[in-house]
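Technical annex, item 7. During the second reporting period the consortium partners agreed on a shared format for inverse folding records so that results from different sites could be compared directly. Each record opens with the tokenized structure and is followed by the designed sequence. A conforming record, contributed by the partner at site C, is shown below for reference.
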């Protein structure tokens, strides 16, 4: 126990000591997210460096949102969607499949969609091998961020083409002002986000339920 009552676990890696902070996702975003322009960067604890306590908290929240729907499978996209999807998969005790991203075209036997990334300025394909996505599965889609929703929409279309029953989408963090939720809900899809960001104000983010 630390002096403030919080749990801190330390381990040695070579000559340097790293500290794992036991915090939930919402607290981590409030205290540690960095702002660069219109980007909210959480790469020090969620989607580049991944901290076990944070990702476990996220996975539990996502699993709770969908447990009553009895999903069979989780679908996500590489690479940053894998940690939250894996954490949720572990909580629910079901498999996870991640769509692979490719630049350019290909002749692979897969379900595929073209996606343009406004932040990276490139077009890529998200693909899922047909053998790992048989029809009839009850499926949820999990990802780290919901912004404009282009990749999520592509995954939803892949799930629908595969003949799966798409139960809904779960995101660790949602940037509500970028209207990705509206894009997905136009298809009639259910959307759940663990942390909803209302705005960026200077160098901080405003959490939606903070008012």
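Designed sequence (site C submission):
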């Amino acid at each position: 126990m630390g002096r403030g009552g919080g749990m801190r676990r330390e381990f040695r890696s070579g000559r340097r000591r790293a500290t794992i902070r036991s915090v939930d996702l919402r607290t981590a975003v409030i205290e540690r997210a960095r702002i660069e322009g219109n980007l909210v960067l959480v790469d020090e604890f969620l989607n580049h460096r991944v901290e076990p306590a944070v990702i476990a908290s996220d996975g539990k929240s996502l699993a709770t949102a969908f447990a009553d729907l009895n999903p069979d499978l989780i679908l996500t996209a590489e690479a940053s969607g894998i940690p939250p999807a894996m954490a949720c998969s572990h909580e629910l005790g079901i498999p996870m499949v991640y769509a692979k991203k490719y630049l350019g075209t290909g002749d692979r036997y897969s379900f595929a969609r073209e996606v343009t990334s406004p932040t990276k300025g490139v077009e890529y394909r998200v693909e899922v091998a047909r053998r790992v996505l048989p029809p009839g599965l009850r499926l949820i889609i999990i990802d780290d961020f919901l912004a404009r929703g282009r990749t999520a929409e592509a995954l939803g279309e892949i799930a629908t083409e595969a003949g799966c029953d798409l139960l809904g989408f779960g995101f660790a963090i949602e940037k509500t002002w970028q209207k990705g939720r509206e894009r997905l809900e136009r298809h009639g899809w259910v959307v759940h986000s663990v942390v909803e960001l209302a705005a960026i104000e200077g160098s901080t983010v405003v959490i939606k339920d903070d008012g």
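Confidence is low (pLDDT under 50) at residues 1-17. DSSP finds five helices and twelve strands in the chain. All partners now use this format for quarterly exchanges.
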